[in-house]
Amino acid sequence: MTDSTDIAIVGSGINSLVAAAELAMAGKRVCLIERADRLGGFIHSAERTLPGFIHDSFSSWHPLFVSGGAYQALGSELHARGLEYCNSDGAVTASVAADPKTGQHRTVVAHRDPEVTAAALQANGDDGAYLAMLEDLGRNAGTIFGAFGAELRSFREVLTIAAGALRRGKVKGTEGFVRDSVMSGRNYLRSRFNGWQTDQLWSPWLLHAGLGPDQATGGVMLPVMALSMHSFGLPVVKGGASNFIAAFEALLRDKGVRIMLDTEAEEILVDSKGAMGVRTSNGLVSARTVLANVSPQALYSKLLRQPPAGLAEAAARYQNGRGAMQIHLALDKPVQWLDPRLDSVPLVHLSNGSDSTAIACAQAEAGLLPTEPTVVVGQQCVLDPTRAPAGKATLWLQLQEVPFSPVADAAGALAVDGGWTQELKERYMERVLSRLEQFAPGTRASVLAWDILAPTDLAAENPNAVNGDPYGGSAELFQNLLWRPFPEAANHKTPVKGLWHIGASTHPGPGLSGGSGHLVAQKLK
Q: Among residues 295, 421, 512, 514, which one has the fewest Cβ atoms lying within 10 Å of its Cβ?
């Protein structure tokens, strides 16, 4: 069977959904090809533990989406089809740790109101420095977010961004801003703050961008994340992330998008004129424009049987980042923290900042199970009580410093010879829960059921998560911004006419902004 369409899109993650919706609304005939039996990639929710307990299976928080261009274009259409967000006007994120000198617990909380957040910083001058950090970013927001939404290898687009900066009078101080931007998060914070609080609060957030505290560009990503949460909070989808996909699916079907589920894209077909379609497990989809939301390895070594010279070799050298792990818990009661302020915070990190997080990153990079992992504690029920039966709660634990193929345990306590067996997953979960128990005693006893996703499970669920990396490849500077995924193919428009590359492995990188899908859709309308 052969079907003809204007645009074929391989994969159905956030960037594919955004592109399909925007292009269909512009009158294009679009076909969406997805190997799984559902849309959404790493956006999904389900009763993973017990009936009545709704867990966001992979991603959960949507500040990047609601602050981006895709939401501006599609938000009203999605809300009209049932999308509803739950958010906080007060505390938004926090970090808790044991003081490395005294052992006493120390907590720092960020609120939607940046002045409330700054006022709680204890070191001399840090309150003013915090507000100055956000003001600096605000003055340069047009340049930063313009770069996130542009083809950085396009001279015309970069010139447009530069011209905008000139019109806004941003020439003075540009060198200092660029210097700060390419700093690591640790060095950026050291250069601006005297106390420990901003480091403990924001350094762990770099993990959500596929970075670590000592990797370049943390100096721009860290204030971007802070500003995003002050401005937009940490919205979650009411009733679970699958309702986000349901709204998108309704929009796509209303606009005539053909959705092919349970369909494997086997080859992108090319002739002398360029892309001519996609051969799938359910027939040929003929299209002169193809968007591939896949890893570089899959695009240039599998889907293109005769890729342009050198690209298969470059894709093979593309480096994926650390693996990730998730633990979903059904609790008999909400978590009760020793510091009661944390009871109402949607997302809490267990980390003392750059130091403990950098150690855990280094251990994972060396193939070791970290001794003290940074634990992301998502309390979605704080925002959305419908996620669990009355009086009970869910917990979403994420670990972003985990090796795909562990070679040893940094603590010397766990055997890893068999890889991520069920026994190893559960024993490592106990280490994580013991770490949580330090700050919220009684949590382990309240666990009714659990479900664990190791890096190997993530890779099996989504082939774009190569080696269990959910961020589409390391976001270190050498393969980020104008070098993402690699210099030989850093534009979304590939050397094959009509073929475009989108997704987390392309600029602007990982996250739920839908940025690459929106950018390419704007070019193809």
A: 421
